[in-house]
Amino acid sequence: MDLDNTLIDRDAAFGDAVAGFLDERGLPAGDLPWVMAADGGGFTSRAAVAAAMNARFPHVSSTAIRGLLDTGAANRVVLAPQVADELRRLTGWTTVIVTNGRTAQQRAKIVNTGLDRLVDGWVISEQAGHRKPEPEIFRAAAATVGASLDGAWMIGDSAHADIAGAAGLGLTSIWVANGRRWTESGYQPAHVAEDIVTALRLVPTS
User: Fold this and answer.
1) Residue 160: domain span
2) How far is Cα 68 from Cα 32, in angstroms, rounded to an integer?
3) Distance in angstroms (rounded) separating the CA atoms of residues 109 and 107
4) Which of 41, 145, 163, 206 is least surrounded by CB atoms within 10 angstroms?
């Protein structure tokens, strides 16, 4: 399973952190959409976002900007109770989070939300040395819990990272649409769900 904007609403948490960051420094609240666009849902590199913010906010220290990017989302993200309930329902499955990102930041999100007590393991790209959609990170996820990928399912919101990665390994996949339409023609998810709760309910438990 994917982490950001799948199991947790990473963008909402980061947006809340950015709003506080701007307010504390007397910066225009109207800059929030600009920062969110620069962040690209977490897919833009930290260095690129930091450079863009340094240029736009020259009177803000680089340390403060790095602090926002390092801990802003991790400190504010929450796990919806319905998601926790659905994870508990997945009896008979071994559940592993597969996430791209820096180890300290992603692990903080997992621990701060209590996901560490609801899943069997996790693999983070920085530590694994591979990023989704590379097959090695999915194999590492299986190895983390002493399992194989035979019969595995992948749930995620990224067509490229999650669904293409699953397709390359022949895994059953669920794309979490989050209000978007599927636009890829080279591969397809096995299922489409509007949100993570619906996605988790598609996973058979018997």
Assistant:
1) 81-201
2) 13
3) 5
4) 206
